[in-house]
Amino acid sequence: MKISIIGCGYVGTVTGTGFAELGNEVIFVDVDAEKVDALNSGRSLIFEQGLEELIVKNRVVVSIQQAGFRALLREDM
């Protein structure tokens, strides 16, 4: 399934990474360039044990964009 996550804060990052770990394609969208850049480099600005490892592991099914709301039109959720 293709899932969109709007906001890469604590809830969005953890939830979206969890969905990716379950085999879904996930697109993260956020207006904060710092959050987008961090996630694109495999880092998280929040701490959750094991989160960065899952972000790196699931990079093939995750897309992270800054304010790319138009991309959301192709998602299932």
Concise synopsis of the structure shown:
The chain is α/β, with parallel strands linked by helices and 77 residues long. It is built from 3 helices and 3 strands; from the N terminus they run βαβααβ.
Report on this structure.
This protein has 77 residues and is α/β, with parallel strands linked by helices. The chain has one domain (2-74): NAD(P)-binding Rossmann-like Domain (Rossmann fold), CATH 3.40.50. It has three helices and three strands, in the order E-H-E-H-H-E. It has a three-stranded parallel β-sheet, with helices on one face. Helix 1 (10-21) links the parallel strand 1 (2-6) and strand 2 (25-30). Helix 1 crosses helix 3.
Protein traits:
77 residues; alpha/beta; Rossmann fold; 3-stranded parallel sheet
Largest sheet: 3 strands, parallel
Number of extended strands? 3
Report the structural category. alpha/beta
Tally of contiguous helical segments: 3
Tell me roughly what share of residues is in helical segments.
Answer: 25-40%
Unreliable stretches covering 5 or more consecutive residues: none
